[in-house]
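Model it.
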Amino acid sequence: MNIAMAMRLAGDHVTAMSAAHANMVFDETFIMTGAYALGPSKIYPIDLLRGVDKLAERFEKDMIHLKEELQNSKEKPIGYYYFEFDAKKTLYDAFMKIGDDAVIIFNNTSLSMEEIIISEGADWVKVEEILVSLSRISANDPLVITEGG
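Modeled.
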């Protein structure tokens, strides 16, 4: 898939997660390419509360809980996803590998993953089903970045 398709797919799945959960699951979502490169990555915003400039300014700090697992995921299959239960506030909560060097970063800027899962009226099983769907689609049709997008 191309970046436009990946952004639409991720946005649709994040919206479906919140609808299935009965609460906002992730309020910040973006695709990051160059995830395993030593240099700066390219950010494709899907939903950002803080804007790209603020996100770039705080990126290293907000990535602290996911950084090691993200580096370890380089050899994992496309579709692999990871949740960090200790991340709170603007610290990123989860990611999913959607291409050889691309991930979706998920964040809830007010709740941790644990708080999201146990929140009143939550149906986490439905959210997981949607995540698995996104994972399978990504594995079968990974994001490929070309010069034109």
